[in-house]
């Protein structure tokens, strides 16, 4: 059985691997994330394929540029018909507000639903040492909450953050705000290059609306069994 809160990251660079995984996971997964590795390799072919398969698509290209360039880039991506797009919150309030307003305008002109727009706060791979190396003096979690509030004020639908910060974001930004959390690792799974991790159940308990899971499924010996185990764990938290 599928859980709409699970988004599987298709971090591959060819369509054969995408098709093999999507076929193997079948109806158990309905939401996929397409990131830079895949989109830069195969382009819009993967979006057309996932739409044909009736899947929801989070196109995770993390736009980060001046307001006009970001807004126009998103407007081009919106025409692909994806469910969710994103920018970096550190692009600032004006960039985010311009982006969402432009998407709204374009959606109304084209008479199509506007894709959800969310903002990346601080990458889940960052730890406090990396963070302080950037000259930052606040703790990561304080800065994440600050960026989440700014994202909400700018009119976006939610954020990408670590599951460890989800409870604070939920408290600060309310029930309707999307909190999409990568950095999800079932007990015993390899951590890889992630730092601020939590288990699927703990991410949901903390208030995450969606979990992004890549390698714990895609690199598993049996990806379908790995996905089903994660879904079973998620189902314990409603
Ligand atoms: O802060 C962030 C933002 C995005 N990601 C992306 O999520 C997946 C996670 O994959 P795993 O294999 O489960 O680590 C990946 O596509 C990242 O680009 C993130 O991890 N952290």
TrEMBL record:
The keyword Lyase applies. Catalyzes the decarboxylation of orotidine 5'-monophosphate (OMP) to uridine 5'-monophosphate (UMP). InterPro entries: Aldolase_TIM (IPR013785), OMPdecase (IPR014732), OMPdecase_AS (IPR018089), OMPdecase_bac (IPR047596), OMPdeCOase_dom (IPR001754), RibuloseP-bd_barrel (IPR011060). GO terms for biological process: 'de novo' pyrimidine nucleobase biosynthetic process; 'de novo' UMP biosynthetic process. Its EC number is 4.1.1.23. Belongs to the OMP decarboxylase family. Type 1 subfamily. It comes from Selenobaculum gibii. GO terms for molecular function: orotidine-5'-phosphate decarboxylase activity. Pathway: Pyrimidine metabolism; UMP biosynthesis via de novo pathway; UMP from orotate: step 2/2. SMART domains: OMPdecase (SM00934). Keywords: Decarboxylase, Lyase, Pyrimidine biosynthesis. This is Orotidine 5'-phosphate decarboxylase. Residues 5-230 form the Orotidine 5'-phosphate decarboxylase domain. GO terms for cellular component: cytosol. It catalyses: orotidine 5'-phosphate + H(+) = UMP + CO2. NCBIfam families: PRK00230.1, pyrF. It holds the Pfam family OMPdecase.
């Amino acid at each position: 059985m599928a859980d709409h809160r699970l988004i599987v990251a298709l971090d591959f660079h060819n369509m054969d691997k995408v098709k093999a995984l999507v076929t193997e996971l079948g109806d158990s997964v309905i939401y996929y994330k397409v990131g830079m590795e895949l989109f830069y390799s195969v382009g819009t072919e993967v979006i057309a394929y996932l739409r044909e398969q009736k899947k929801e698509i989070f196109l995770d290209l993390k736009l980060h540029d001046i307001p006009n360039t970001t807004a126009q880039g998103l407007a081009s991506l919106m025409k692909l018909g994806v469910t969710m797009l994103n920018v970096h919150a550190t692009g600032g309030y004006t960039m985010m507000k311009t982006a969402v307003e432009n998407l709204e305008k374009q959606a109304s002109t084209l008479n199509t639903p506007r894709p959800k727009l969310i903002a990346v706060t601080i990458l889940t791979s960052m730890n406090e040492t990396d963070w302080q190396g950037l000259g930052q003096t606040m703790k990561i979690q304080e800065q994440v909450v600050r960026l989440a509030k700014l994202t909400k004020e700018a009119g976006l639908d939610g954020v990408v953050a670590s599951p460890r910060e989800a409870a604070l974001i939920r408290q600060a930004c309310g029930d309707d705000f999307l909190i999409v959390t990568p950095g999800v690792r079932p007990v015993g799974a390899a951590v890889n290059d992630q730092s601020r991790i939590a288990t699927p159940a703990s991410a949901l308990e903390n208030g995450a609306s969606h979990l992004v899971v890549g390698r714990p499924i895609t690199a598993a010996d049996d990806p379908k069994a790995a996905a089903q185990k994660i879904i079973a764990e998620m189902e314990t938290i409603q």
